Amino acid sequence: MSTIDPITSDEDLPSHRAASSDATSSTTYAPLSSLIIPITTSTNNNNYDPSTKSGLFIEIFPEELATAGGGGIRPDQLSQVLRDESAPIQTWCEASLLYIRMKKEREGCDLLNGAVDKEGGEDIMLGSNTADKLRLLASAGISALALANRLASSGEKREEELRSVADARFTKADNINQVYPPTWIGKGMLNLALGRVDQARFFFEQLTMRECGEILPALLGMAAVKFAEKDYAGAQQLYGRAMQKFPSCGASVRVGYGLACYKLGQIDRAKAAFQRAVDIDAENVEALLALAILEMSSLDSTVQDGREYRSKAEKVMKMISMANMIDSSNGMVLNHLANHYFWKWSPVLGVNVSVERGSCVVKGNGVGNALEAGDRIRIGDFETSVVGEGEEDGVDESVRIKDAWKGASSSGLKLWKKDYDRVLSLAKSAYSSTSISEIQAESLFMMARVHHARNDMEQANKFYDKACKHSPELSPARFGLAQTLIWDEAYEEAAAHLRLLLMTSPNATDALAALGLLEVKAGKDRREAFVYLKKAIDLDPFNADLVLIEALALQQHESDYLMSLDRYRKAVRLLEAQGKVVPAVVLTNMGVLCHETKNYDEALEMYGKALKALDDNPDIAESADDEGGEDVLIRHNDNSLFWTYKRTGVRVEKMEDDVTKLAVMSSAHDLDTLGIKVGADISIGGDVETTITEIFKGEGGKVELFVKTSLSIQSEQEISVKKSNGRLRNPLSISVAFNLARLHEAAGRINSAVELHKAIVKRHPSYVNSYLRLACIARDCGSLKDCSEWLKSAVAVAPGNPEVLTLVGNLHLSLCDWAPAQKVFDQLLTQKVPKVEAYSMLSLGNIYFNNLNAPKKYTKHLNYAADFYRRILTKDKANAYAANGLGTVLAEKGELFKAKEVFNRVREVSGDTILDALLNLGHIYLAQKRHPEALQMYQSYMNRTRSSGAPITSKSQDEDESEVLLYISFAYFDWARQTELFNDVKAAPADERYQKCIEYIEMAIKKSKKENVTLRYNWCMVKLQAANCVLQKVNRNIRRTAQEVKHSLDGLEESLAIVQTMLQWKSEGKKVTVSTGMLTDFVNQCKHNIDSAKSHLNEELKKEKEAQVLRDFQRIEAEANEKQRLLTAALEKEREAQEMEERERKARQKMEQVNSLVDGWKQAAVAAEKEKDKASAKKGKGSGNVPPGGVDDEAGIFDTDVAPTNTSALFDESDDEDEADDASVSKDEESKKETPRQNETEKDLFGDSSSDEDDEKPKKRKKTETDVEEEDDDERATKKKKVDDA
User: Fold this and answer.
1) What pLDDT band is residue 269 in, cutting at 50, 70 and 90?
2) In this structure, are residues 1250 and 1196 in contact, taking their beta carbons and an 8 Å threshold?
3) Under 8 Å between Cβ of 500 and 478
4) Reported pTM
5) Taking the CA of residue 475 as centre, how many other CA atoms within 13 Å lie in the half-sphere pointing to its CB?
6) To which H or E segment does residue 256 belong?
7) Handedness of CA 911, 917, 919, 925 (dihedral sign)
8) Three-state secondary-structure class, residue 35
9) CA 182, 188, 190: angle at the middle one, nearest 5?
């Protein structure tokens, strides 16, 4: 930021506010073009007139002034002249101002201090007025501050001394007059330099601006205060006001204004301000550098054309170079120059080099003197680093490079390199030229970058760390520090620095991605890790590199393989959409993920695309065929990615007499050259593939080919021969080929895998991984001899390779060769490779633990094993394998509770990936007699090993499973024995558990490849124990069957035969692991149990026979009872049917009576209608004699002339239904009997009918509305009867 210009005159202060009692205090002075010193010592009456320059005087022009040691007037000479001529204070101040305007602050400050100091200052100030004294003191203090600022940027350690001098000058001025504005300005500057912003504001705003108004120094001081407070808008406003009120204020004000604009994001205005400052003062270093930086930031090679880009870049470098010429000690300028040379390629003059394809050696005259280890060089577009001198004859003729030359062999090539030595020199100069910590931090950062580029990580880490300490907010330095810490595997410390970086630069996508990767690797909080990665991708969603980093992070955990594969696909889509080539390494990783997720077809497709991507690269594309007609290394169809059919031009035709014979129709003198020979794979016409089994050459050049398969070609066809496509010659294709071979192994294509591995080691003999895989395949196939041979080859190729030695040690472990295995792992331990060291200690611990049975070495070996496990955990507390081993030691010591806690913790940390923990937990539970939990652990272990397909505890999967089955069987055996201890009914489940034990032992015997005597003996022991359990059921009141006893007896007899055979083997001298005493005891006990079992069997058979007779009797009785029950049920059913039939008959009779009654009612109604008609006729005849309103015959009113019907017998149960009442009844009698008969009919219909309910007692009912209506009908019938009687 721009500083306040030193004040050495009152020209910018209003005269009416100057604190002085003298008349001369209001005098203003014009800018000086020269210094005039009146001569007073050589003349007595010299009256110098400044307006006319009359009189004697000395005039000194600026170009005559020089620094100490130069030609011209030195400051000490000028000071002596001023003293000799008794120059006034004004002249002293003008002389100092002349120096300062020439940017010689040191000389100007020394001159003023010389006037103030006691050496001659008292004489100079003695005859001066107060205003001149104050001016001198204020100017001396302000010049000291300006020099302090200057020295702070140049690296000299005098800032505190000069600030103390300035404070003393201002204090002395205050003692003379406390209201002198230049003193306030100086004090404001001093407080601002010391970081006391509030006090600086007080002097600038509360004192100077309030008393003197908006004068230039006060405006600039307040602008500096606003800038320090990060109020950039306020600073911009004050700088603008200063330029408006004082247009000739100078370039530094424009620089301050430009800086404020830059902080506000107003780049164009900032550029204009800096350009104006350069126009005003072409030597203003701050303006030149700021303008160069802004122009540099606007450079974009992707938008601008090449000519415009180079033109602007040259302009920028010219400005930086000009700034360096003006001030070669400016730290910022030197840092930017160092940055420029860090990226610039400089030609190595006078050196032309030659390189060969695939070589790591660069040859050329003088190349050894021009380059050294760590230099970054470029040959054409190929960039690499120098790793050391070449091995060719001649010291300066060749150098070795890090990467192999990928292009064609060439010579006479130009060589370019990065001039890192100049970068270091400029950065060191920048560091030593300033004391500002931020600028020093940038210098340290540049030095760290150079060491980083040279792969000197220790020095790079050292300088990155210093840069961060100088400037904690320098994000690039902190990111570089994190990178070097990652290289040093200090992951936690690197993550801590990245978090600090994100506090200052929260949108740094590289830092977010790196922190996400570190969090994933640490495995502490994967969710937070992917939050960082997601944020980075959200900030730059079209950056395929960030998506690839996320995919790589997901790839670290097996459960995230599918998600990782999805991210890779997304990155590939982004790259293809942007028109970029998908790197082969990305496609290879996708193939590996498909392989791990058992998507073998897609994995094969990805590997094919990866090989195609390598072929499409012109720098590494190989020729189509092997040079020199080499034999084809790969023939299998599964490896078709590495061979092709090459046309030979030879045409053949099928012979009529033999379908496997071909006649060569063209010239055949060069068949061998074309690769047509016995054993060659050929294609005929592009459709038929076969193999040549014999070549017959007859007279006259006649050639016949015999092939392996029958042919059906109809015409003459051309032969193509299977040839290598050269992909294996490309070193970058080897990793893809190896992964493809591993894919063949996983898919069960062992022959194809072996062929590809052998081709790899033949083409690249130093590729150790294929040797190791061939050894593993031979081991898995049971060919330990071949395994050993391949391992010997691997050791010969890479004698100290940790992976080779590890596999050799594991081979010895699988064979239980403890001493050779221990020797190998001891050798690995001496190499002190971090990961291999831990594995070696783990293996040694396992060796000691597996040798606890050594005579008198139990405690010693157990302690050794525990010590190795603890050493691993001391270095890596998260090593679950070591923790599992320590748990086994605790279990062996009997500390089962602690051991169980350890195994549970191992399961929790590893996510059940360490299957041994399940097995060990099963053992713990079994020791604690918690048999269900133990069986669950064993079953979980078996299920996981079956799904993974990898042997864990034995040489093969089957033997491993056989061993675990034996554990399960023993758990059931122990559980059964424990159950038998009840010795009562509660011991019933023991028999079932013995049967489970026998079942699992039989499964173990089937899984075991060899005859296992121990398993057979265990089976016999379980049979014996199970038989005892069955025989003891009688005493325990547990029911048993003769079949169970018979099964036990059979098992005892079979076991006896097996054990007797073992005894025979023992007597014959064969190896039997069971002692003779145990076998003899077993035979004796088994014979005794057989006799007892026979007795029990007879008893059970007798009981079952008696029980059978009883059951037969009970069955016969039950059958008789069942027959009686069925007969009774049948009779009851028949009776119910008869009763039902009778009820139906009676119901039919009643329905017939109802129908008869209805018919009678209808006839009565018809007769009544007829009677009514007759009555109406009679009434018509005698109507004239009847008085009005009278009734002649009351009986005619209700007389219906209906013949009475006998309804009393409608529902009569009498069988005499044919009886009829032939007696004639008078009408009066019929009328009397009508109502009772109707009531009787209703009674018969709805009341006391002859039915099944006759025997029931009549029940009383409450009167209802229906009953009342019936009574009303009865009353009306009674009235009718009375009328009839009348």
Assistant:
1) very high
2) no
3) yes
4) 0.61
5) 13
6) helix 251-263
7) negative
8) strand
9) 105
